[in-house]
Queue: 4 jobs
Job 1
Amino acid sequence: MTMGAPRKEIDYVELEKLVEMQATEVEIASFFDVTDKTLNARIKEQYNMTFSEYKTLKGGKGKISLRQMMWQSAKKGNTNMQIFLSKNMLGMADKQEIKTDEKKSVEITFVEDADD
């Protein structure tokens, strides 16, 4: 009887940390030195869900944590973070647009090539 390669186990605490950091399925599989198929099989065995379902369930924690750090940084006076959040959360912009109902005409002139 031939034996296959030894079973590769997944550290589920590390898995959750990697998912919280928004690592991709391929990156996480690489981290554990397994294929994406093996990663999915271990998640299915442990949690009875696919990687995608697991990431949807656990990935939000990382986003919340990052958002909280960004918010705290802005509150402490980090002007770069204040500007970033103002643009992304409040829709502010550096440019100023002036809208008008005034219609303007544009004239286009085609010049024939002298070599024709």
Job 2
Amino acid sequence: MTPQVVTVVQPSLSKAFAPTTIATGGTSTLTFTLTNGAGNPAQTGIGFTDNLPGNVRVAATPKCRPTARRARGSARRRSP
């Protein structure tokens, strides 16, 4: 049997707020996208930590929808 070499590229993580600017008390949706490189084997046990900007808080009733493809939630800008 001939040994096989598998090169695995680290997945990438990006985040985006929509809309990108909100007024105090407004709501924005934060989407994280975790992308596994083309040709990479399926990966498990991946986690990450991300801190919200200082003037942003998780909404009182967040709408998190984790799926196999993405997870979303709501954030609310706090009053100064």
Job 3
Amino acid sequence: MGRFVSNDIVWWRQSHGSKSTVECSSEKRKRQTNWLNSILQAFRLENKIRSVERDRKAAEKKAKRDDAIHNTPVIRTYDYKKGTVKDHRTGKIASLKQVVQKGRIDLLKDKEIK
């Protein structure tokens, strides 16, 4: 088997002469470039799949969080602009200053609710 190099062309010949191959370096570069492009394409596809999976998990997590927030009964509302606290179970409203600073939560409670 012999190998002959002439500029950018590589000639391969077997000794019995039945098979010969000619490969230009530009063809070799094309093959290498195509191979690298296929690897890059696979990486991009893998990143896209990971991104879609991450987005799906984030959407599920957000849905659970939203469900927990919207389905929780409101017990009290603290309105700092008006300076009031409203207990939604009893319907009573008290001063924010009395409830928060002085700990007078009893102002909002009914005698039945403890």
Job 4
Amino acid sequence: MSSSLRADRRRRRVRGPRGYARADARIRQDVCAALGRHVDLDATKIEVKVVSGEVTLAGSVRDRAAKRLAADVAADAHGVKDVKNQLRLSKPKRAQPVRKGSSSSSPSVAPTRSV
């Protein structure tokens, strides 16, 4: 058998018997593992739910590319029928502006009078 034929067989999707459906828990486990392994994706704020083979991604990612990548990675898992991408883009944290003329570190206290 030629090496190209063997490589082609490895790339084919495996099909189960008629009526077979992969368990949601196994699909979730595979999707979570794939998201965690991907070097270009921070999956720490992604939540994965699977119901009847449909994967729902929720949480936040840093940019649109990461949002698309997470959906693509989830879709490639064996047994996934559909992916609902509900990921949101996380807002970058901005530094608080410093007010001129007042110290924000100490509260203002009215002076006391001695009688």
